[in-house]
Amino acid sequence: MGRRRIVLQLALILAPLTLLPATATAADPEVVIVLRDGRFEPAEVRVKAGVKIKLVIDNQDKAAAEFESHELKREKIIQPGTRATINVGPLKPGRYPFFDEYREKTTRGVLIAE
Length: 114
Prior knowledge:
five-stranded mixed sheet; 9 strands; mainly beta
């Protein structure tokens, strides 16, 4: 009876964890996008559909940036001279535009899941 009780208690403790969203792991592919001179480099990124990825935004500009994508449902402020990791996916095949909210008209890119 004691062992059964411990297993039940452990199950009750761990059950809520199954409801948490999936996060990227160290084994997930990493894609680096550099923000330099008000442009994303590369501006078009192709990734495998159905896979979680880590987007690493390297802000080499002298101003803060706000990476944003409505389709990816992600938003992150990145200070000048710093990097930010944004976990996404697994993605369905399609186009996922992103932009710097502070310079939306000129600083744009797209993630393409194939």
